[in-house]
Amino acid sequence: MIMKSKIILIILLTWMMLVIAQDDKKPAEEEKPGWNKNMVGGLNFNQSQFDNWQRGGENSWNWQLDFNAQFDYHQKKFGWLNKGKLAFGQSKTGSNEAKKSADEIRLESVLVYKVAKHINPYLSVSGQTQLVEGFVYTDTSKIRISNFMDPGYFTQALGLGFKPWSFFTTRIGASLKETVTRTEFAKDRFAAGESPRIEYGAESVSDVNYQLTESILYVGRVELFSNLKSFNEIDVNWDNLFTAKVAEYLNVTFNFNLFYDRDISVKRQLKQTLAVGLTYTFL
C-alpha cells in the first residue's frame, strides 16, 4: 500500500509542478460557437537487416499506426466534447513471430452545461478496450491474457469541470465503472458470473495540452477512479505524449503510460515507446 501511495503522490506532484511552473498562464478563452474538428493520423516504421555483419545483430522491424480524432460542439449554454483514439502496432525480431507492440481503442464523450466562466457541471461516458488478442511469451509457449472486450472498461460520471487556463482542464464527480471480461481472463479476481464488475465511486480526470517550445508539444492525462473502499484500490491511468516536429510531415514521439487497476493486476503496469514517423492532419 505504501508503494501505491507513493506512485499516486508522484503523479499528483508532477502535474502540480507542471501547472504551477508555467510563467505564461493564459486564462481559458470562450470557445467559438459551432463545430471544432481535428483528425490526426501517424505511421511509424523501423527496420534493421544484417548480412555477414561481424559486430553482430539480429534482423528486426516494427510499425505502429496511430489515429486521434476530436469533435467539439459549442454554444453559449452548453458544450459537447467527443474524443476517439485508435493505436495498433507490431514488431518482429529474428525468426520469432510478429508480436503486438501497441493496441488500444478509446472513446469519450462529455456534455458540459455552462453556468459559470471556469466551473461547469458535466455528464460523461467513456469506453476503452483493445482490437486483438494479447499474449505473454515464454521460451517455449505463449499464453493468452487478453482480447477484444476482455477486458473492457466503461465509465459514466456526473460532476463539475474546471478550466482555469487554456492548456489545462480537470473534472471531478460521482462515477459508475464497469469492467467487462468475456473469457477466462482474470477469473481468479472475478466472482463466478461477475461480468461486468460494477463499481460505484468517484472519478477525477485532468488534461494538459501544452506547447513546450515552437516544435515540441506535450499532451498528458491523469485518470483516477476510487470505489471509496480503500486507498490502494484507486485505479490510475497516466498517459504522457511528447511530440517534436522535425519537418512538415515528420515527427518524433515519446510516449509513457502508467496503468494500475487492482481488478486486473495487483502490480502497476508500464509502457514506453519512442518512434520516428509520418503524421498527417486530416481536419
Structural overview:
By secondary structure, the protein is mostly beta strands. The chain has one domain: Porin, CATH 2.40.160. It contains one helix and 14 strands. The chain has one helix at 2-20; strands spanning 34-48, 60-74, 78-93, 99-113, 119-129, 134-137, 142-146, 152-165, 168-180, 197-211, 216-226, 235-245, 250-260, 269-281. A twelve-stranded antiparallel beta barrel has the order 1-2-3-4-5-8-9-10-11-12-13-14. It has a two-stranded antiparallel sheet with strand order 6-7. Strand 2 and strand 3 (78-93) form a beta hairpin. The radius of gyration is 21 Å and the shape is globular.
Strand order of the largest sheet: 1-2-3-4-5-8-9-10-11-12-13-14
**What is the chain-wise order of helices and strands?**
HEEEEEEEEEEEEEE
- What's the CATH topology label? Porin
Mean pLDDT: 83
As a percent range, the share of strand residues is over 45%
The helix content is: under 10%
Which CATH class? Mainly Beta
Number of DSSP-assigned strands: 14
Which structural class do you get from the secondary structure elements? mainly beta
User: Which descriptor suits the 3D outline?
Assistant: globular
Alpha-carbon distance between the two ends: 45 Å
What topology emerges from the helices and strands here?
Blueprint (H helix, E strand, L loop, with lengths): L1 H19 L13 E15 L11 E15 L3 E16 L5 E15 L5 E11 L4 E4 L4 E5 L5 E14 L2 E13 L16 E15 L4 E11 L8 E11 L4 E11 L8 E13 L2
Antiparallel strand pairs: 1-2, 1-14, 2-3, 3-4, 4-5, 5-8, 6-7, 8-9, 9-10, 10-11, 11-12, 12-13, 13-14
